[in-house]
Specification:
Mean pLDDT: 95
Number of helices: 3
Strand content: under 5%
Low-confidence stretches: none
Radius of gyration: 14 Å
Oligomer: single chain
Shape: elongated
Order of helices and strands: HHH
Helix content: over 70%
Length: 83
């Protein structure tokens, strides 16, 4: 198994953990951790796609990453800051 394959699999695991955590009620879609897991997953999957190109998969991962960045931004501005 190549390094890009491992990166893609690790990315898929991160996205699955975020999704499963959300379904279980342990991670809210508004949590920073949820967006970080999804963004990390999208980056790793895109890394693997760089070596084995698939346009449709790349488009969805770019969308997934941008959506995760938006979610991360929203989570950071709406959560109260510790003083």
């Amino acid at each position: 198994m190549s390094l890009p394959d491992i990166a893609g699999l690790a990315g898929a695991v991160l996205v699955a953990i975020a999704y499963f955590g959300n379904i279980q009620g342990r991670l809210q879609a508004t949590d920073v951790a949820y967006s970080v897991l999804n963004l990390g997953g999208a980056i790793l999957i895109l890394t693997s796609l760089w070596f084995s190109w698939n346009l449709a998969a790349a488009i969805i991962e770019v969308f997934w990453g941008l959506t995760s960045i938006y979610g991360l931004w929203r989570a950071m501005i709406t959560q109260p800051r510790a003083r």
